[in-house]
Amino acid sequence: MGSFFAPKRLRRWSRVSVVATLALCASTSLFADFSRLSQLQGKGFSISAEARLLDADADTNTLLGSLNPERQLSPASVTKAYLAAAALNRFGPQHRFTSQLVSSGSIENGVLRGDLVFEGGGDPGLTTENLWRLVQRLHLAGVREVDGALVVSQWRFGPVDCITTDRCEALTRVANAYSAPLSSAGVNFGSWCVNVAPAATAGEPARVGMCDSQTTLITIDNQVVTRPANSGTEISAERITDERGDVMRLTGQISTNATARDVYRGAGDAADETAQVLMGMLNQAGIQVREPWRVSSTQPPSTAQRLAAVDSQPLQEIVLRIMNYSNNYMADVLALDLVETPQAQLRQAGQAIESYVQSLPSHGPLTLYSGSGLTTENRTSAQGVNVMLEDMFRQGALFPSFVAAFQSPANGVMRFIRRGSATFQNNVMLKTGTLNQPFAVRAAAGYFRTAQGRWGVFSVMVNGNGSTPYLSWSEVLDPLSLDLDAMILAN
Fold first, then answer.
1. Residue 104 in contact with residue 304, Cβ under 8 Å?
2. Beta partners for 195?
3. Residues paired with 456 in a beta bridge
4. Over the stretch 175-226, which tens digit does the pLDDT of each residue have?
5. What percent of the chain has pLDDT over 70?
6. Residue 341: beta bridge partners?
7. For residues 118 and 278, is the Cβ–Cβ distance under 8 A?
8. HEC states along the chain?
9. What angle do CA 48, 50, 52 make, to 5 degrees?
10. Which of 315, 323, 292 is nearest to 150 (CA)?
11. Per-residue pLDDT reduced to its tens digit, 353-395
12. pTM for this predicted structure
């Protein structure tokens, strides 16, 4: 009995039970399609769906079910599956992005005669840990003073035009982390992190500080009050940008016996954030910088020499994080890495993914304005998604890294997919996509293994409009899981 992880329930079935089940499904073939999911069409939702088996001969793939498979709809974060495929094909699973400190100046008695330039390498997962290693390596290189400025160079891309409502509003204020600005020199996913802990005594302000720095890099407007034990903890946070720069405004309460909480909010400018974080680290390391920091979109001169460097995680690990956590910042940074010309914008990143898809026969139209799926103009079809999934399936060197980034409902990071029968939970790997504004999108795509161990692909996109009601995930996943169950057990 085939499955991704040899699920116990399927593994314990007897051969007689399997034969009986297959006979039942074969006699009720009506149920081995998208008949349940299709009922959403009666509520005004548009659907594009397709499921098919992947046979040894691609020309003989068996169609299991379809609903308007060529209809162009928004895939939301299923877009990230296209990004993962394009990036793996372009760079390979072991590719790493390098960020470095360079300078055209010489080091004389511990003094760097010139500017210290941080050259952002477009690392989607750059963190303060990476920057601290850079600073430590700079210290080991003998630098104790910079007779110039710290320059953060985002010449590859940045600042990137916001284009989506969330990111444009986030330039002045934001109450989330996913709308963070984009830059090839961004750190910590373009977000600030503030730690909130209770004071020792109820009635006192909570204790707050930066998650990754002993120095307070931004203004923290702390209005969180400590309450008696077991009073509950409710913290609201908003990053606003005013004449003071970025300000983290915290309100609410925290109990005296509560554990400390990390709060993340998008920065006003990703490269500015990197400069402030780096300056704090240089100060902690005892490396004095004489002039104020600045941000540049100019590539360092060819005379610049590397003083320290740090590599990203391998691409296959970056892709896994992007897909598992649906990290929009990481996705769009990786998509921008696909553009060869400097100062890339998101539409160019989308076009780079489109160019990859043009090599896939029978895919059909694809329009992408981002690699994250935050842009509601993204359009593809269920048939097109399945063509891409099949192409990756047939690439033996890339498929393990690709499929590992999809989630099993039984063990998924996203709790809302942990539903359905044991068959659905253990025999399906999927990526989901969600949008609520300006219209509802619920999308899912991925792979499944049938009762006989055959591989299959499926893709489903459900789009609402201005007049359709709110669409919960249970309204999509519950019928979809039943439809896929029937297909899996019948084959």
1. yes
2. 209, 262
3. 53, 448
4. 999 999 999 999 999 999 999 999 999 999 999 999 989 889 999 999 999 9
5. 93
6. none
7. yes
8. CCCCCCCHHHHHCCHHHHHHHHHHHHHCHHHCCCCCHHHHHHHCCEEEEEEEECCCCHHHCCEEEEECCCCCECCHHHHHHHHHHHHHHHHCCCCCCEEEEEECCCEECCEECCCEEEECCCCCCCCHHHHHHHHHHHHHCCCCEECCCEEEECCCCCCCCCCCHHHHHCCCEECCCCCCCCCCCCCHHHEEEEEEECCCCCCCECEEEECCCCCCCCEEEEEEEEECCCCCCEEEEEEEEECCEEEEEEEEEEECCCCCEEEEEECCCHHHHHHHHHHHHHHHCCCEECCCCEEECCCCCCCCEEEEEEECCCHHHHHHHHHHHCCHHHHHHHHHHCCCCCCCCHHHHHHHHHHHHCCCCCCCCCECCCCCCCCCCCEECHHHHHHHHHHHHCCCCCHHHHHCCCECHHHCCCHHHCCCCHHHHHHEEEEEEEECCCCCEEEEEEEEECCCCCEEEEEEEEECCCCCCCCCHHHHHHHHHHHHHHHHHCC
9. 170
10. 292
11. 999 999 999 999 999 999 999 999 999 999 999 999 999 999 9
12. 0.92
β-bridge partners, 237? 250
Distance CA 192, CA 189 (A): 9
Q: Are 285 and 135 in contact (CB under 8 A)?
A: yes
Say if residues 187 and 127 touch (Cβ distance below 8 Å): yes
The owner of tokens 């309100």 is: 251
Orientation of helix 328-337 relative to helix 79-91, angle to 10°: 40
> What letter represents residue 4's amino acid?
F
